[in-house]
Amino acid sequence: MGRITFSVINMKKFRLGEELYIKLNARGKALSKFENLKAFIEQNNEEIPLEILGAMDNKWSDYFFDSTNPKAFDVRYFHFLHYANAFFALAEKTKDKIEDLLDRNLIIDDRYKYVRKKTNLSVLDKMMDVFGVLKDLQDGHDLKDLLESLKALNPVFKGPDFFKDNFFEKDKQGNTTDKKEELTGKEICYFFALLFVFAKHPFVLDKPPKAEYKRPQLDQKLQEELQDYFRVVHHLVENFYFQLSKIPGFFNLLDFVSGVFNSEHRAKGITRNQ
């Protein structure tokens, strides 16, 4: 009988924590890119409140899960965090090249530090609050008046199911197949335009008790301003010659354009339907 040998892995080299490798060994396959990124965000990060960590495991996960295409979960969730990280990096005037930040094969290390920050995760959590409510309401209520203009003006916003149609498509037999593995330059800028709304003008949800169900709605003036904003964004994006190296400059343009909302609507956002 041959000798049995064991290999010892230096966990500090990988910087992902021993618990991940215990989990990997238990199920017999490597962790996905999403699982590695989420673990990196959470690891030794006392800055993140427990409620946001819980939201990432529950509210955010519920939003990205699609029972008709379970494999889409990791893909949608990973790209949401990946492109959001690039957005926050540009907002903080990073010295990293945009081509590196947008690279889906970017090593999960300190370059993902921007989605480890409480303030940035709070922006994404507010985004999930709003999109989650819209998704739930759409399942049984008519929201065309609220969604159609945004769907027409922002191709990344296909309705509340964020990133649902960006990476997958149906073949002739109705089966779901992979479409692509990354967003185009235009789609990235549409996503950034959407993130600017939540970063600058946090939406406030006022959800009544279930026993007194009333549909949350967008303040009418804010809704009009959102439509005007995305009309401008649509015109700029569709008439811009995209190279990845040009995205930081376009980011600054979106930063300027997104300043159109006034302080009143920054506080209002989604309000209870009286």
TrEMBL record:
Q: Which domain of life is it from?
A: Bacteria
Protein name (record)? Uncharacterized protein
